[in-house]
Amino acid sequence: MTATPIIKVGFCVSYDWELLKKSVPRIYADADIICLAIDKDRKSWTGNPYAFNDQEFYDFISTIDVDKKIIVYEDCFSLPELNARQNCNRHRMLIAEKMGKGGWHIQVDSDEYFLDFNSFVKELKKINPNPTGKEKPLNVCACWVPLIKKTATGYLHVIFHNGIPETVPMATTFPDYQRARHNDHFNVITRHYVIHETWARSENELWFKINNWGHAAEELSEKQRRLSYYNLWKSLDENNYQYISNFHPASPTTWPALNFCIGQSVEEFIRNFVNQKFPLSTFQLLLKNSRNVSRVKFYTGKLLSIINTSQK
Predict the structure, then answer these.
(1) Helix, strand, or coil here: 102?
(2) Which of 189, 178, 190, 175 is nearest to 102 (CA)?
(3) Strand-strand pairing, 138-150 and 154-159
(4) DSSP-derived secondary structure for 2-40
């Protein structure tokens, strides 16, 4: 561990902790400090207990943590007076507090696998080599490749045609987790990709997940809605996926279409996966990531809205 950690990576650890075996190795070499935060009573954000193999968990840490970068942080992350989303936000904020102010705060979920974390870190350091936490808040986003279902021979995953992929704030100079990792800070979009093993679980694992994750307090709060979406997912296969569009449970158009890639494991999927060309040129991305351009668009939109209102 460096004397002054710059790259701080936190994980919300829970029932799917074994996915850390795929996600942590992808970030380990380039992280200065890694915080694995797990509920001390082994409860989910909705308060449901889950099975957890402590011996295997700590054996994994002792095997991978050759440079002594990992902190295991156990606390109460499942308060009964909070809903799933509120517990999620609190969990993430406590991780940030545990790792301390300053540096780049990165949060990676267990089911997220960076394709090139080293390159992502280099880009962060170009933006700011050592944030103090006192700068104007900033998020840096990566693009998700969501895995929707594992079949007998491969994976169904989301494709975005010519649109910008689904993005998520992975890093920030000022942790402020208002809705998972999202907040109202300015977002810089990058061309970096993260495989997201979001729905590619067994039927039992997925049903447990959608009843216990943060979304269970929001767009999937009604059991009938969860069940309907779950049944639609169960019907997907290698033959009918092409007929599915606008599949995202919260904002349908976020997942416009599905594709198929051969792979008996996530590792094999990654080797076979051919990514789409990023839809924005360097200049277009520069404009999109400009605070000044964003500010002009915002006030222009407000002005046009006032003019349209006054003409009615």
Answers:
(1) coil
(2) 175
(3) antiparallel
(4) -SS--EEEEEEE-TTGGGHHHHHHHHGGG-SEEEEEEET
Amino acid at 63: T
* Residue pLDDT, tens place only, 235-272: 999 999 999 999 888 888 999 999 999 999 999 999 99
Asked if 106 and 127 touch (Cβ cutoff 8 Å), the reply is no
What residues contact residue 273 under an 8 Å CB cut-off, 6+ apart? 145, 157, 195, 261, 263
Distance of CA 66 to CAs 27, 34, 207, Å? 14, 12, 36
Cβ-contact 40, 134 below 8 angstroms: no
Q: Is 287 helix (H, G, I), strand (E, B) or coil?
A: helix
pLDDT tens digits for range 9-61: 999 999 999 999 999 999 999 999 999 999 999 999 999 999 999 999 999 99
Classify 302 as helix, strand or coil.
Answer: helix
Question: pTM of the prediction?
Answer: 0.90
CA angle 35/36/38 to nearest 5° reads 135
Task: Characterize the bridge pairing of strands 186-196 and 138-150.
Answer: parallel
The H or E element containing residue 151 is: none
